[in-house]
Sequence to fold (410 residues):
Amino acid sequence: MPRKTDKRIRLIEAAKVLIHQQGFNLTTLADIAQEADVPLGNVYYYFKTKEAIGIAVIEKWASEWTERLAKWEDIADPLARLFVLIRHGLDNLEMVARFGCPIGGLCQELGKQGGPLADLAAKLLHDVLQWTEAQFRALGFEEKAAEYGLTITSTIQGMFLLTHTFKDPKISEKQAKGLEDWLVKMIGRKPEMAAVKVEELAYAD
Amino acid sequence: MPRKTDKRIRLIEAAKVLIHQQGFNLTTLADIAQEADVPLGNVYYYFKTKEAIGIAVIEKWASEWTERLAKWEDIADPLARLFVLIRHGLDNLEMVARFGCPIGGLCQELGKQGGPLADLAAKLLHDVLQWTEAQFRALGFEEKAAEYGLTITSTIQGMFLLTHTFKDPKISEKQAKGLEDWLVKMIGRKPEMAAVKVEELAYAD
DNA sequence: GTCTATATACAGATAGAC
DNA sequence: GTCTATCTGTATATAGAC
Fold:
C-alpha cells in the first residue's frame, strides 16, 4: 500500500538522477514529474518551489554520505578507510565519465549562484573533507591532517572532472592508483584491507 | 572610429565574463546585450543563436590560452614553465573563489549536455593537458609524461573546485605549494625562475 | 547595419474541481 | 490528496521599419 510519502520519495529520487545528469538549472519540474510518474500540478503539493526540491535532493545526498562515512568508521585501519573512499569513487566511473561527480557538479553549478542551495552543496563536500581529515588524525597526523585531507578530496575531485571532460574512466583509475601509492609511501605501510568486509564496500542504494 | 567588428568583440567579452560568473545556461542573451551595451535584437545580426555565442566565447578562451602557453615556451627551463602555469592560477584567486575556474566550469556544465560546446570546452582543458605533458617530456620523462601531466592538470582543477566551493583562496595557495614541492622533489632540483621575465608572468588581457 | 516590436515556446507556479 | 487547466513571466528568436 503506497504510503503518504511515497510520491515525495519518488520525486526526490527522480530529481536526484536528473539533476546529476542534466544539472539543476536545465532540469525542469516537468522532467522530474514525468520521471517520477507524478502529474506536474501535484508536484507542488510536495514542494512549494523548485528550490525546495533542490534542497531535498541535496539533503538526500547528505544523508546517504553521512551513513556511508559512518559505516566506514567500522573499518579498523584508518588507512584502509581512505582506500575504501578512493575505491568507492571507482565503482561508478561510467556515470562519472558521462555526467561528472554528483557532488562536484552541484558545488560547481550552485556555488556560482549563492543562496541556501550553494551552502548545502558545499556542506556535502565539507563533510567528506572533514572525514578524510579525521582519518589522518587517527593515523597520527595532528598538524598535517587538514592539508592531507584537502589533498585527497581535491585530487579525487580533479580526477573526476577530467574523467568527465574527456569521457575516459581510465583517467580516474590511473590517478587513483597514484593517490594510493602516495598514501602508502607517506604512511610507510600498506592498508589492512583483509578485514574490510564486502558489505562495507557495496554501493548503498 | 568603431570598426565593423566592434560590437561583436564587445558581445564576446561581455558573454565571456557573464558566462564565467553565472554559467552558460543561466546567462541570457538579454544579460549579454545589456552588458555589451547592444540592443537585444541587434545581437542576432552578429550571432545566429545562443550556441554561436558560446562557441565564440570558448574560441576566445582557446586563443588566449594558445597564446599564453606559446609565450611560456620562451622560458628556458621546462620546470620553470610548469611553475609559471601553477602560479598563473594563483593570480586571480578572488575570482576563482567567487566563480570557479572558467575552463573547469565550462567543462563541467557543458560536458553533461554534449554537442559542439562540450567538445570545444573539453579541447580547452586538453590543450593545457597536452602542454603540461610536453614539459615533462622536455624534462626527460618519456613514459611518465602523460601521467604527470594529468596529475598537474587534475590537481589544479581539484584545488580550484574546492577554492570555489569553500570560497577560500588559501586552499589553492596551500595546494599549489604542495604541488610545487612534489615537482621539486621528483625532478630533484628547483626551477630556474631567475630567467623568467615579468612580462611572461603577466596576465594577458 | 541598427533597433523596436513582437512571435513563439516553455518555464515556474497557481486555481480550483474532484 | 490528486490532477487538469491555466496564469504569468521570461527566454530565444524573428519581422520588418529605418
